[in-house]
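Dear support,

I submitted the protein below through the web form. The confirmation email said the job was done, but the results page showed an empty box. After a refresh the structure appeared. I'm attaching both so you can tell me whether what I see now is the final result or a partial one.
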Amino acid sequence: MQAALLGWAEGAEGAATDVALGLEVAALLHSAGFLGDAAQTLARLEAWAPNDVRVHAAHASLALDYGEHGLSRAISARLLREHPFDERVRRQLLMAMSYDPACSDDEHLQAARSWASWAENQAGGPQPRPALRPPDGGPMRVGYLGADFCQHTVGLFVRGVLAAHDRQRVAVYVYSAGDVFDAVSQEIKAASHWRRVHGLTDRALVAQIRADGVDVLVDLSGHTAGSRLRVFAHRPAPVQVSWLGYFATTGLSCVDAVLLDEVHAPASVQAQFVEPIVRLRGGRLCYQAQDWMQDLAVAPAPNAKRGRITFGSFNNTAKYTPTLFAVWASILNAVPDSRLVLKWRNFNDAELCQRVHGQFEQHGVSPSRVELRGPSFHKDMLAEYADIDIALDPFPFTGGLTSCEALWMGVPVVTLAGPRVVGRQTAAFLYAMGRAEWVAADVSAYVGVAVALASDPSSLLHWRTRLRATMANSPLCDVAGFTRALEQTLAGLLHGAQVQQLEAWEQTVATLETRLRMTQAAHQAYAQALLAALPEQPTAGI
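What the results page shows now:
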């Protein structure tokens, strides 16, 4: 595929007449991990179409996967100044800021508020809360809107919850804004009133949600790719909630709650959000291994056979930073003869591999100790945990599904709990499993936990054989319990909106009654004044 795509990209004549097709080629190269080839294709496109915002936006996305967070953010910020009405550019800037360790909480919050102000203007200004449906004794209608109801982190986390909803209490509506339909999509479709809304305008989507009589609308995408978050500015549902698919504020004051938990959101986190934080009992989310994963065997601890410790991380390269590489190098230097395996599709790219090896060499770690692996099928990727003794979680952007899968395959995960929601994901999983000792509060403790685990082969052997059962029997994997808690939370939010609506009606009635009394009193006073002003009538003679 790479050779075919490159052959097309080098044919300048074809791309010059169809930039959109050239962008598709660049996107395919990028998605397959051939970053350098994608960059060359984009450079040719930029020469042919120097003012095409799509080409520059693709450059910003590419920079993010290279770990060039500042560059990605700078390109996105420039594009926003030049194209203030391009929603994709606005969304891309917010994502770049989420990955950039140099971005402050206040900068991110202000950018989200700016997006929300723009979205509200697009919707015709702030919209009132629509009236709630009259109680009819039927189930609460909950709509889930997102772009990733497929073999994606969001789809895999949400599929079990949608199937576990109590149909006596909840009618599930799914609004799928993505263009992928696979086995996971089919599973979700079977558990819901499925609406494929890819391609619908905002107003058409709003009309569909209102026609379905949705009581609570849940966003699962935030500002990630394919999001339809702008629809929320139209206020299509009485209660609107942000959950699961995003890790920061939407910026919208018309979103009534963001669903987190105590570990993801200590009290200090509220300052990072426009929306009120509602903490779910038992955790922000739950994990359910796919059916075919139940039979995957947990391999023996590799250190017992090789006589050395192998660390690993199978996370997105966009999460890697020079600081993180320095910390990982210090762990390798503290554990003699240890190795590190990093795996992600972008390690198909020779230049990225050289950059990463160069980072470790700066800290005295030979490239021979850092193995970089490219992509593989999901099942094959999970089998590669047979080579890993200890997983190292990146920071400040920690793992989500990746951490759950490492734990499922019997591999302990060491994490650093940061000050933001996105920096506390793995910590929340470990707390739910009762493994708080693998959660570090700072860099020094992070190194200490990793080195201590590496120095205790008996503990590694113990957890290799018991970690999956510990995980499966913990709140992290209690799909039914989690779903009941979610239902109670959503019902509570709906009840709160009903109370507010009733109070508003009562206040309106009271105001009208007061005005009526005042009008009646004024009329009575006016009538009395008129009577007093009339001349006396002569008494008729007898």
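Response: this is the final, complete result; the empty box was a page-load delay. The radius of gyration is 29 Å.
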